[in-house]
Design brief:
heterodimer; A: alpha/beta; Rossmann fold; 6-stranded mixed sheet; B: about 230 residues; mainly alpha; MetI-like fold; 9 helices; about 0% strand
């Protein structure tokens, strides 16, 4: 589904990604972790070309992202993305947030789009909030709406960029619950997150990044059981001990 | 000072009202046209295409560096020549008509700077979110960025419009009859400058003060909840 081959990226002369190679198969859940500044968010944003990269290739569902001829809006419409800061549109109601891209990008009728949006809103437990504006919701609620907004486009896979990092601790679980449910339904997911509980529960593979490179790419059992690299061991020891 | 005679206002009210109507029409035209052109200029200025950036920057810098009254005069003289070049016919434009054009073009430079800071006030992640949903550049601007930019900047846009409303009086230089111009013409004829200019000042004050209260009200009522 997602193939990342030897991707390197520079900001000027500073290299932020070094020869990253991995893949996500259909219905697979891959968790990407690593210290801050390790390039994990940058890598996931390369997958739907929100960030350009200079070397290597990324192929999503058979379409080469870096190819200048690729219709990026069309590709991105099929790849759901959830951001650290939710990025709901603050000037629109929750209903409009859910409907607008369905109408403008997929060409659905307004009724159809609202109907679909409300169903998904119900699924994330927020049907009562449909008429409100994003600013009237808590962070956890906003992030659940953001997930519903991405799902409304019927994505073939979902990218999560630290979806719980901006949340108060008591709101993290309501978002993770939605993500776990999605994973269990067979959604293909690539998640940048530090939530190791989530990784243990639903991940198939865990990728550990450090200084722009993929240091460890292992099945969940191997990663948590016996990480090969010292960096990953040290990282795990730090974040699992609290 | 015992011989104030405000009957001169009453007698000439229709002429003054006609001038005021013209002033409001020019203001409204230049506001709408200026914001539209200004928004396009702002998008050009912020685009990644160098020639578009240069054009927009040049446009803004030129019009902000020349006194408005000179631009009014220049366009009044040049516009008929340009039209003649394009159409090959002599088209009498007239002072009153050329002002609509001049103010729209001139104000666009100021509105574009306001829209530019408005666009920059929208967090970058919002554009990313729009793109991630499959929006094209145009759609991301149209549905995500510009509505927020416009809302954030509405008080400043209106403040600029108040300035524009007052500046329309500069068409005096080309002899067009705006509100101030109408008052001035009556003054020349009836020789009642104190009554006339006082009335004009009061009317300008009432309109501008009302608008600036509206701006204040808007500032507290239309802010986007974040």
């Amino acid at each position: 589904m997602i193939e990342i081959n030897n991707v390197s990226k520079w900001y000027g002369s500073f290299q932020v990604l070094t020869d990253c190679t991995t893949q996500v198969s259909k219905s697979e859940v891959v968790v990407v972790c690593g210290p801050s500044g390790s390039g994990k968010s940058t890598l996931i944003k390369c997958v739907n070309a929100l960030e350009p990269f200079q070397q290597g290739s990324i192929v999503v569902n058979g379409i080469a992202v870096q190819d200048p001829k690729t219709d990026l809006p069309k590709l991105r419409a099929k790849v759901g993305m959830v951001f650290q800061n939710f990025e709901l549109f603050p000037h629109m109601t929750i209903t409009d947030n859910l409907a607008i891209a369905q109408i403008k990008v997929l060409g659905r009728s307004r009724d159809e789009a609202v109907d679909k949006g409300l169903k998904l809103l119900d699924r994330v437990g927020l049907k009562a909030q449909a008429a409100k504006f994003p600013g009237q919701l808590s962070g956890g609620q906003q992030q659940r709406v953001a997930i519903a907004r991405a799902l409304a486009m019927d994505p073939i896979c979902m990218l999560f960029d630290e979806p719980t990092s901006a949340l108060d601790p008591e709101m993290i679980n309501e978002v993770l619950d939605v993500m776990v449910q999605l994973a269990q339904e067979g959604m293909t997911m690539m998640c940048v997150t530090h939530e190791m509980g989530f990784a243990r529960k639903v991940a198939n593979r865990v990728i550990f990044m450090d200084r722009g490179a993929i240091v460890e790419d292992a099945a969940k059992e191997d990663f948590f059981g016996q990480p090969r690299s010292e960096r990953a061991q040290a990282f795990l020891a730090k974040i699992l001990n609290h | 000072m015992s011989d104030f005679d405000f009957s001169v206002i009453v007698q000439n009210w229709a002429f003054l009202a006609e001038g005021l109507r013209y002033t409001l029409q020019v203001t409204l035209t230049a506001m709408i046209g200026g914001i539209l052109i200004g928004t396009v200029l702002a998008l050009m200025r912020l685009s990644s295409i160098a020639p578009l950036q240069w054009f927009a920057a040049g446009y803004v810098n030129v019009f902000r560096s020349v006194p408005l009254v000179q631009v009014i005069l220049a366009f009044y003289l040049i516009l008929p020549l340009v039209l003649q070049m394009i159409t090959g016919k002599q088209i009498p434009v007239g002072a009153a008509n050329s002002a609509y054009f001049t103010f729209t073009i001139f104000e666009a430079a100021y509105y574009s700077e306001i829209m530019r800071s408005g666009i920059q006030s929208v967090p970058r992640g919002q554009v990313g979110a729009g793109y991630a949903l499959g929006f094209t550049y145009g759609q991301a601007m149209r549905y995500v960025v510009l509505p927020q930019a416009f809302r954030n900047m509405l008080p400043v846009l209106l403040t600029q419009t108040i300035i524009l409303f007052q500046d329309v009086s500069l068409v005096y230089a080309i002899g067009a009859t705006d509100f101030f111009g109408a008052a001035d013409k009556i003054t020349q004829r009836d020789l009642r400058p104190v009554e006339m200019y006082t009335t004009v000042a009061v009317v300008y004050f009432i309109i501008c003060f009302t608008l600036s209260r509206l701006v204040k009200w808007l500032q507290s009522h239309i802010a986007i909840i974040r």
